[in-house]
Amino acid sequence: MLRKKLLLLSKLLESNILDFEKKYHRSLESALEISRGTPASPSASGDREHAVNQAAINKGRLEKLKELRDEINTSLSISSPSKVKPPSFVILDYEGGKKEFYVVQNTVSLHNMNLLSVDSLLGKAILGKKEGESFEALLDDRSVRGKVLRIE
Q1: What is the 3 state secondary structure string of 17-29?
Q2: Neighbour-count burial of 144, counting CB atoms closer than 10 A to its CB (0-12 exposed, 13-18 middle, 19+ buried)
Q3: Which residues contact 96 (CB under 8 A, 6 or more apart)?
Q4: Nearest Cα residue to 122 out of 81, 84, 152
Q5: Which of 61, 64, 149 is nearest to 101 (CA)?
Q6: Which has the closest alpha carbon to 101: 92, 93, 110?
Q7: In which element (H, E) is residue 73 found?
Q8: pTM flag (> 0.70)
């Protein structure tokens, strides 16, 4: 079965990677421009330091996005797992409703995407569970119970 949800995530990651490649290159260009510009002054040094730091932040985020993309893309041709394992898409019933997550090894913050690390408390609680199996996790000093409804 085609892993449609992971394919959707892969496409979103490609879009984010392109955006962050542009941001990274712009921040590098900015750092170079500042270093060629004004003679050394406290203000110019601060601007240069800020631009260099921003470039490093963008590079780190870009690397994390690429790691996650690679993790997802290597699993697209593999059929949906019978147990929760990374990478997979799951629907859980807990805290009074259904919640959707992408269970992954390499997490990064993505707008409107619930990425769940296998190292998180909830990730550890559902890892290895099959559809229909229950889980329990200690979240925010309280016990949470739920059920795995779907794995893709």
Answers
A1: HHHHHHHHHHHHH
A2: middle
A3: none
A4: 84
A5: 149
A6: 92
A7: helix 42-73
A8: yes
For the CA atoms of 109, 112, 118, 122, the dihedral, rounded to the nearest 10 degrees, stands at 120
Per-residue model confidence as pLDDT tens digits over 44-95: 677 778 878 888 888 998 999 999 999 999 998 888 899 999 999 999 999 8
Cα gap 34→15, rounded to integer Å = 29
Q: Which of 122, 137, 68, 65 is nearest to 90 (CA)?
A: 122
60: enclosing H helix or E strand: helix 42-73
Query: With the C-alpha atoms ordered 117, 151, 111, 136, is the resulting torsion angle positive or negative?
Result: negative
Residues 6+ apart with CB under 8 A from 95: 144, 146
Give the Cα separation of 48 and 32 in Å (integer). Answer: 8
